[in-house]
Model the fold of this input.
Amino acid sequence: MSNNSHTTVMNKGDSNIDLAKESLTALLDDRRVPDSVRNVLQEDYQQLRIMLDKLENGHLHIAVFGRVSVGKSSVLNALLGKDAFSVSILHGETKTEGIEEWQEVDAGGVYLIDTPGINEIDGEERERLAHEVANRSDLLLFVVDSDLTDVELSALKTVAATNRPIILVVNKSDQYNEKEVLQLRTIIRKRVTGLIAPENIVFTAASPSQQTVIMVDDEGNETETIRQRPVDIINLKSRLWDIIEAEGKTLSALNASLFAGSLSEQLGEKLLSARKQVGEDTIHMYCIGKGIAVALNPVPVADLLAAAAIDVSMVIHLSRIYGLPMSKSEAGELIKTIAAQMLVLYATFWAIHLASSALKIGTVGFSTIVTGVAQGAVAWYSTLVVGRVAEDYLAKGKSWGETGPKLTVQNILDSLDRDSIMSEAKEEIVAYLKTSKKPKKS
Ligand SMILES: Nc1nc2c(ncn2[C@@H]2O[C@H](COP(=O)(O)OP(=O)(O)O)[C@@H](O)[C@H]2O)c(=O)[nH]1
Ligand SMILES: [Mg+2]
Done:
């Protein structure tokens, strides 16, 4: 919502742009995403910034897409009226993307983007490239040089699914005579029904080949002349001008909104996995902290208190990573709920733990260390469980969902291999105790 005063009457295009800008800005400025998580998703945030920039500058991006050697670079050069992009008879001349401003559009800010061809890469790579190119462009020129191959048709379907406007450019029309052009148009029109509107199928000859004409005079002498066929790009130019004039900025707003929409969807999933990743490291850090604190602390009651405090900090820390900050008491309540379920499910296990905890009083020297390490490992394990369960609860938006607390705890316990976790924990604790004397404060 814009609260600043607009003195001009907004047209549909402007309000679309505002909306698009808003949703991009909202994604960028989302305070619930902490820096630790943002760092993991740097590239996505960079893309968001580029998109917002483009929108603010009113830029329009037109990209070519298609098989290698159909004449993508040539089509762009013909539009630009200069050899801005390199062209080659060799396959795959265009290795990376290139961008060039199309000066002929008076309004300015229209850019043509050249891309590598698509046929020598496998299907998955093709899909990825198709999405990437589509995401970054407001209008696509899908270039072919004959009837569409299966690979081209599937690539066209992929880009069409991104809802970008597409012009199907049938290049190298100089290779066909008039009748063949008509036939080709009919065949292609049929093939792309539902994907491309008939007015967006345009024939071009971006870089026509030379024609050798042999003339025979009355005496039977042959003379060879080489004739340059004319470049034919005017239909594409005028179609582009029409579209730019009619929809210009709306197109880039449309694109930005689509991008923001799909990104926020993707970002939702990516955010979750980035949060998991950061959460994982965080939990591990607290497991070490708690394992060592417990291993070194000879008084079992204090063990439990210290342990609880560490778990509370961990849950608060996790709640920030998940963008749902919790207070100390809220975190405490959550731990209580989790602990209650753990007690129910693992009664014997904790009973042994508490018994060994009691044993620790009065023991000295080596045996204290041994018991300490064993207890540290138990503490580590319990913190891991609390952390994982808390994460699950946070990932569901601070709720137990349909699963409920009991089943959630049960599922997490089932997913963890207790024995191997505890033996790894012991190793880490012992390794830590060997290298330093004091536990790390977390
Ligand atoms: N006959 C003919 N050849 C063309 C045309 N456009 C491009 N070519 C040729 O096709 C080859 C590949 O062109 P290029 O633009 O590099 O294709 P890209 O790989 O799709 O970028 C080059 O040899 C061009 O000269 C055209 O309209 N007619
Ligand atoms: Mg090229």
Q: What stands out?
A: Confidence is low (pLDDT under 50) at residues 1-11, 361-366.
